[in-house]
Amino acid sequence: MSWYLRFKDVVRRALGSPPEASPPVPTGEEATSSLSLIPGVLKLRVGVISTVGNYREHNEDNFYVPGRKSVRYDAPPDASGEMETSTLDPTNLFLVADGMGGQQAGEQASLMAIQIIPKGLGRRLSPGESDEKAIQKAVRESVAEANHEILGLSATGSEFSSMGTTVVLALFRNDRVYVAGIGDSRAYRLRRGRLEQLTEDHSLADALGKAGTITPAEVPNHKFKNVLYLYLGSKDARGGPEEVRCLDVRPEDRFLMASDGLTGVVGDDELARVLGTCPDPQHAARQLKELALANQSKDNITCLVIHVVGADRGAESSAGLRP
Description:
Layout: H1 3-14, E1 42-51, E2 61-64, H2 71-74, E3 86-88, E4 91-100, H3 105-124, H4 132-154, E5 164-173, E6 176-182, E7 186-191, E8 194-197, H5 204-211, E9 245-248, E10 254-258, H6 260-263, H7 268-277, H8 281-294, E11 301-310, H9 311-318
Antiparallel strand pairs: 1-3, 1-11, 2-4, 4-5, 5-6, 6-9, 7-8, 7-10, 10-11
């Protein structure tokens, strides 16, 4: 019997229901089918932190976490961005955006992204929608809508003429998560000690690396690493993200969404160490921020950490915890 079926039987016994008979062991391709978590059992524990960092005057990053106000409301320039860990249901959207542009255009672009995309998904998806293609289509269209609005504002005057923003999102739907990114903000998943980058960076250096013009080892420190060819506010992003990945979600999975103020200076080994050893997501976000500051990050820093846990454990763990 798989770990999932054993887990399901434990839950059924705790609820006073008899255990289900084990289904036949699948063979061939059926044996690789994904697990199906029990509604009401899976929970997400979330921590997030955003700071202006060591060198910038303004925080052009922003984030979207259900039930929390954005950076623009919760984090004045001298604030630490600290918040409490929260426990959420498994159907939720999370966003990180890193704004670009002169004056305060970057701040406006990232704010527009985290405002428009959730509203767009809310219009396009019913709460019970589970069709993979329909959800992927809704994600693309919602991101494309944000791109259209940012492009429109950038054409209104010189104040916003160079505005743009990266965006990375994770949309959880019970036992699935849909991940997409435009720009160089990233999403990662840590599973059983293995860290996987779920999104691609859309920089000129990465494009040269994919084309074989430069070696993979040259990409991180290349002079074009911070020059983006795809971002919200660019005509090439009119169709939304190039890829919307659909992944299974398991208990003990840990996700990180971050701007390049973190990932540009903290290596994957350190990211995996903090995600794997810190039991509280808010504490993990804080530790990652401190690592970025210690490594002399020259950008704003935003870290959003998500732990996938059982509902009972999530409720118990969040009680009394403070950052």
